[in-house]
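RECORD TYPE: protein structure
NAME: 5-formyltetrahydrofolate cyclo-ligase
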Amino acid sequence: MQNTKKELRLKYKSLRKQLSEEEMEEMSLAIANQLLKLNIWDKNYFHVFLPIQEQQEIDTELILHLLSGKDKNILISKSDFESREMTHFLLTDNTQIKKNEYNIPEPVDGIEAPSKKIEVVFIPLLAFDKKGHRVGYGKGFYDKFLSECQAETIKVGLSFFEAEALIEDVHEGDIQLDYCVTPNKIYRF
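PREDICTED:
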């Protein structure tokens, strides 16, 4: 079986669909606990994705609790599907969240922050390989966003599943992860 992005997308979407709600909760908790072992907690600006429940994404609520407990600045994004741009907003007690037409929970508005300010990004993905390449949904939002961040921004993928040996069709513009955290393991690249 070939390990192209397209095939991996299909494989992992199907694997995710087989997870029960209970399994997803347990695995999300295990991932949040693994994150505590990373050397990232001296940073201040953290970007977190809000999960698309319909896609069985990792529940990041526990990560949000961790960050607010440590008094970190949390940024969440709004996506523009025409320009493929993401705008980042500071998450505050007053932030209103609303699902867009793709069921992505997004801030309605708020205090905007530039990509350059973000020090750690938690990245949703479908699959990743042992070299730190990832497969997302193929829209290119995160590659564009990550290319706008500082070179030293720490990129942390979050995955329910372990690494594939290799993703065959990696492009030059694909930005590699620094870490990928699964319920059982931390991969460092």
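COMMENT: The longest helix spans residues 21-35.
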